[in-house]
Write a structure and sequence with these properties.
Glutamine Phosphoribosylpyrophosphate, subunit 1, domain 1, GlmS/FrlB_SIS, aminotransferase, 7-stranded antiparallel sheet, Rossmann fold, binds 2-deoxy-2-amino glucitol-6-phosphate
Length: 612
């Protein structure tokens, strides 16, 4: 989704800004732009539709090198107004240039007021309202900071806003509410961004602005003011995050790299949290034991892939820990009246920790009577992490592909560890069962490494999808949410319409869709539901459906007319949902390749969905 970079220095910041935008490309966007001001107060603004590369080329085409010691840059993911150069940021008004993440909900009302004051709008973007409003307020203010403060009190919605003033090319003003902003500290130069990844190559020292904060940033100094306008100190932290943005290495795409990284990312997730036989409760949080004892209900909230991880864990919470669990999509949870169960733990799951709906749901839930708020997250210092009481980092490393892969399997591993710790505290899990789970988790990285040998077989299989318009994924029990995840992956990467069904539901409607043009992918591990699933397979076969069945080598399901069987090595039933996810990811990846889509940045999608 939209990305922001800003810099103020004594040197030319243009390349820093462009480089920062490149590092934010993975988030998904449709246009980009930059505005820089030099020492003599000349403002240069360039905006382009499409990739940051286009912006870079446009800069190169300029007769003179574009120079600015202060500047702002942006990648835009269209919300108000189509993707176009005119709607791209920065937006300007008089001497003011502005970039903005988020949505100004009362932009229409503000637009009318500003038009009545004589402002002429060049775009359809809500951000242009901000530029004119700040320009207006500056006329009656002593500083840019004061003008921005007067502007934000008139806004409804969410924002991370950065403003520069051509007449004062020494100071960036930035403020946030609902959209993250991080300030990066250099030596005689300072930076800001919507994601620390944009700045990791130039600094390791960061300060996260809190809700409602405003900062004035010069090359020498950063002054922060809270929502009441009081000067405040915010902690400066040293990041030890590795700069993962680097390279795809031997891989063609980040998605491919991230699929193949899963053995090692899983090892990271479990390290220090389990040993040979035991779940190490301390490894998931020092104060967690007391809370686990009290839990009678778990409420999970998440979106997309993270929601699918939560749906899988629901089976585990009830089967393995004997604790009731509800899972809800954040955008639904936040807009309905919900009843808080007694002694309920609220868990949010998110790769980015910045998903607007998940964050809003957490903030809403915090007004209710939950016993604690846990975040299962991949991004250190994200808003979700900072606003939760208990943190379980999934340690998958940076995920650049828009489609979540390694973060899903790491989320599942962490959830399984949490469930086991809970089951142990509740005396629901026997010592033998705990041993079995721990053993299964310990074996998993190696088993996944071996499973990736199916790569070529799945690549071959993907050819069968080239002319397909629809696909159905079937699973039962905890394999139903794995089918949901497989289906989400296929649709986002290949643009093939796809649905996931609990296999038992087939006869209640979807069976009508089955014909020779409808591939049906079945997840059929060797478990207690296999016999039931076989009946569902027969229902499809009898109606001429094309079946692809992923099963265990020790079942009697064999390739037959209209039925391709992919046999996987047999594995513990407990970790099988994580294991069966891998071939599903490979399948989407290869179908995406065959279809010629941009697998790392599928159209219309963003890595981190920071608007609702
Ligand atoms: C899945 O591949 C997508 N990237 C998307 O569904 C994602 O899982 C969703 O937007 C939630 O993001 P989060 O985990 O960062 O909160």
């Amino acid at each position: 989704m939209c990305g922001i970079v800003g810099a103020v220095a004594q040197r030319n910041v243009t390349n820093i800004l462009i480089h920062g935008l490149h590092r934010l490309e993975y988030r998904g966007y449709d246009s980009s732009g930059i505005a820089v001001v030099d020492f003599k107060s000349n403002l240069t603004r360039i905006r382009c539709l499409g990739k940051v590369k286009n912006l870079e080329n446009a800069l190169k085409k300029k007769k003179e090198q574009v120079f600015g010691n202060i500047g702002i840059a942006h990648t835009r993911w269209a919300t108000h107004g189509e993707p176009s150069e005119i709607n791209a940021h920065p937006h300007t008004s008089g001497d003011i240039a502005v970039v903005h993440n988020g949505i100004i909900e009362n932009h229409e009302e503000l637009r009318k007021i500003l038009q009545s004051r004589g402002y002429i709008f060049a775009s359809e973007a809500d951000t242009e309202v901000l530029a004119h409003l700040i320009e207006w307020e500056l006329r009656f203010s002593n500083s840019l900071r004061e003008a921005v403060q007067k502007t934000t009190i008139q806004l409804e919605g969410t924002y991370g806003i950065v403003v520069i003033d051509r007449k004062n090319p020494k100071c960036l003003v930035v403020t946030r509410s609902g959209s993250p902003i991080v300030i990066g500290f250099g030596i005689n130069e300072n930076f800001l961004a919507s994601d620390q990844l944009a700045l990791l190559n130039i600094t390791r020292h960061f300060m996260y602005l809190e809700e409602g904060d405003l900062a004035e940033i010069t090359y020498q100094k950063v002054n922060v003011f809270d929502i009441k306008g009081q000067k405040v100190e915010r902690k400066i932290i040293e990041s030890n995050s590795k700069d993962h943005i680097a390279a795809k290495g031997q891989y063609h795409h980040f998605m491919q790299k991230e699929i193949f990284e899963q053995a090692s990312s899983l090892k990271n997730a479990i390290e220090g949290r389990i040993n040979k036989d035991l779940i190490l409760t301390n490894g998931i949080g020092v104060h967690i034991t007391k809370i686990l004892q009290k839990i009678e209900h778990v409420q999970i909230i998440a979106c997309g892939t993270s929601y699918n991880a939560g749906m899988t864990a629901r089976y585990w919470f009830e089967n393995l820990a004997g604790v009731a669990c509800d899972v809800e999509i954040a955008s639904e949870f936040r807009y309905r009246k919900f009843i808080t169960r007694s002694n309920s733990l609220l868990i949010t799951i998110s790769q980015s920790g910045e998903t607007a709906d998940t964050l809003a749901a957490l903030r809403l839930a915090k007004k209710k009577n939950y016993i604690s708020f846990m975040a299962i997250c991949n991004t250190e210092n994200s808003s979700l992490v900072r606003e939760s009481d208990l943190i379980l980092m999934i340690r998958a490393g940076a995920e650049i592909g828009v489609a979540s892969t390694k973060t899903f399997t790491n989320q599942l591993a962490i959830l399984l560890i949490l469930v086991t710790a809970l089951g142990k505290q509740k005396h629901f899990i026997s010592i033998e069962k705990e041993k079995e789970i721990v053993n299964a988790l310990n074996l998993l990285p190696k088993q996944i490494d071996n499973l990736l040998n199916l790569n070529q077989e799945i690549q071959y299989l993907s050819k069968g999808f080239i002319d397909k318009k629809n696909t159905l994924f079937l699973g039962r029990g905890e394999f139903y949410p794995i089918a949901m995840e497989a289906s989400l992956k296929l649709k986002e990467i290949s643009y093939i319409h796809s649905e996931a069904y609990a296999a038992g539901e087939l006869k209640h409607g979807p069976l009508a869709l089955i014909d020779v043009n409808m591939p049906v992918i079945v997840l059929a591990p060797n478990n207690e539901l296999l016999e039931k699933l076989k009946s569902n397979i027969e229902e499809v076969k009898a109606r001429g459906g094309i079946l692809y069945i992923f099963t265990s080598i020790d079942t009697d399901i064999k390739t037959d007319k209209g039925m391709t069987v992919i046999s996987l090595p047999s594995i513990s039933e407990i970790t099988a949902p994580i294991y069966y996810t891998i071939p599903m990811q490979l399948l989407s990846y290869y179908v995406g390749l065959i279809k010629g889509t941009n697998v790392d940045q599928p159209r219309n999608l963003a890595k981190s969905v920071t608007v609702e």
